[in-house]
Specification:
The protein is an alpha+beta fold. The protein has helices spanning 26-30, 48-61, 69-83, 117-123, 151-162, 206-214, 229-233, 265-279, and strands spanning 3-8, 12-14, 34-41, 44-45, 88-95, 105-111, 125-131, 167-172, 176-177, 184-189, 192-196, 221-225, 237-242, 246-253, 256-257.
Length: 282
């Protein structure tokens, strides 16, 4: 990640090369903290209010003191102004701060987008299934929380890449489709799109919500539910959705093509609609 700007609660904009987190911050000590990442278009973070709302919800679930939305907005604006770029990503962090201090830490980071995003979108990504061994009740403590405890997610990506894939697909009980480490998963049969239900404890992605809003206008029906991996493997096309990667075609699962092994029509339509919304005047 190439950092372009950093803003810190109580300090404002700081040099990105200077340390800003103490060694006894609970985010570092215990991974106790929440974060959000969103894409910036023409200098404006897309759906900032939705991301702040989810950050505050995650922080509450993790037992952090209440976060002030106005402070987060101000910190974000400072970081974006300091970065001075139109296209980037904005990442927000919230931790309890130094152990026992009772003074939460907020960080706003602006970074450069990955250079290979459009190349990946043109060819599509390969997924490798990774079983989490979870039940499907959605009752695990951090279900739906965007926590800083991302070790499992990143290890899953490593597993996928070691097997020749680009990203991992989490399965519960070895067969129930959940999500990818940093994105939601979708697939299509005919004019119907399928995606796992939030009741499974997956993350309620902001880009996922945008897609749900726009599907009817694009001529697609939706089914949310509990699906086995065979339904995805036998689909006509598949894709993931996330803030930074946007709508990313998924063209293979465990080394076998999904559909004809090429990006599909639904992914193209949703990507175009997402870009239209994100780049239109607020």
């Amino acid at each position: 990640m190439t950092l372009l700007a950093v803003a810190v609660s109580g300090r404002g904009v700081v040099d990105p090369e200077q340390p800003v987190v103490h060694a006894d911050d609970e985010g570092f000590l215990r991974g106790r903290g929440a974060f959000e990442t969103m894409r910036v278009y023409a200098g404006r973070p897309f759906r900032l209010g939705d991301h702040i709302a989810r950050l505050r919800s995650s922080a509450t679930r993790l037992g952090l003191p209440p976060l002030d939305a106005g402070e987060i907005e101000a910190l974000s604006a400072q970081a974006l102004e300091a970065a001075g770029v139109g296209e980037a990503f904005l990442r927000l962090y919230a931790t309890p701060g130094r152990e026992g201090s009772g003074d939460p830490l907020l960080l706003a980071l602006v970074g450069a987008l990955p250079a290979d995003l459009e190349e990946l979108r043109a060819r599509g990504i390969g997924l490798v299934s990774v079983s989490l061994g979870l039940d499907v009740s959605g009752s695990w403590p951090l279900g739906g929380v965007k926590s800083m405890s991302y070790a499992v997610n990143m290890m899953a990506v490593d597993v996928a890449r070691d097997q020749g894939g680009d990203d991992a697909l989490f399965l519960a009980q070895g067969r129930i489709v959940l999500e990818c480490p940093t994105s939601n998963i979708w697939w299509r049969r005919g004019s119907t799109l399928f995606t796992p239900s939030l009741e499974l404890g997956i993350l309620a992605g902001v880009t996922r919500a945008v897609a749900l809003e726009r599907l009817p206008a694009l001529g697609y029906e939706l089914q949310e539910g509990v699906f086995e991996v065979g339904a995805l493997a036998g689909a006509e096309e598949a894709f993931t959705s996330s803030s930074v990667r946007e709508v990313m075609p998924a063209v293979a699962l465990d080394g076998k093509p999904i559909g004809d092994g090429a990006p599909g029509a639904a992914a193209r339509a949703l990507q175009g609609e997402l870009r239209r919304l994100a780049t239109s005047a607020p």
